[in-house]
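As a warm-up, study this chain.
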Amino acid sequence: MHEAQFYRQGKDDEGKNEVMCELCAHHCRIKDGHRGICGVRENRKGVLYSLVYGWLVAEHVDPIEKKPLFHVLPGSRSYSISTVGCNFRCRHCQNFSISQPGAFAADAVPGTLRSPEDVVASALSNGCQSISYTYVEPTIFFEFAYDCCVLAREQGLKNIFVSNGYMGDKPTRKLAPVLDAINIDIKAFSDDFYRQICGARLQPVLDTVRLMHELGVWVEITTLVIPGLNDSDAELREIAEFIASVDPSMPWHVTGFYPTYKLTDRPATSASSLQKAREIGLAAGLRYVYEGNVPGAGGENTACPSCQARLVSRLGFSIQENRLVDGRCPQCGEQIAGVWG
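Now compare it with the structure written out below.
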């Protein structure tokens, strides 16, 4: 076990040891012998422990485009890791077998024990230029992710979070100096959606988007477009306008939904729905809106916002052509926002 960060000790109404976890926006009050919503942080006699430090259930080499990140080291590979657990309860989670505490025994944490040195060495030996903390919400294994980030930076690797954005203010501020990029889901622009579909709230996610951007972390946004739940023109426009209010150069990925887990009563997203979402994003002033996860949807390429020259051509997760020169358009010299070096 590894003592957790970001918690306060106290007593419950019966005078017994209780802790307030400040890692994420749930602010769980955890009684002695119990765990928080994430299922992997446990109060033992007034001390909060992470049960997943180094216990990895997933280690893969992924194209960075799979995160998705389109403005970070295009065509590179990212060493992607995960433990079990998550602080959301998304009804459509594609990784529910590792994200939901109900999927594993209450008295055991599955996985293979790794050290930060192991992770960094594996990333380097596999020719990766970055490490991605992903598959479940990486905030819940913050202590291990942070230690990996520090060591990765020393070895010249970039660090990437793929996140639901529900982390607390203090963890965000501690992580930002060693984090290069983050993809944050804005799953909808409705608190009802977040409560009913994810077991969370919208505002903390928006706060994290703003704070990460203010702290200098490169941010890209993903919205999984679910028919009948978050695909109205009005809601998509609200998401796009919010992103534009933070930074119109912040890329927005609108991606296709497929029925899974507990949300099987909805059809898959059509290519035309993604095209509509992209048009809404561009009309709201966003410079980069990408369609994904639906064959034939198009809208995967990066164009110069100044002269419209095609800069990066993509097919799925592969790069067909990259014409950027030191992060600039070779035709007009426009600096393209992103992490290119």
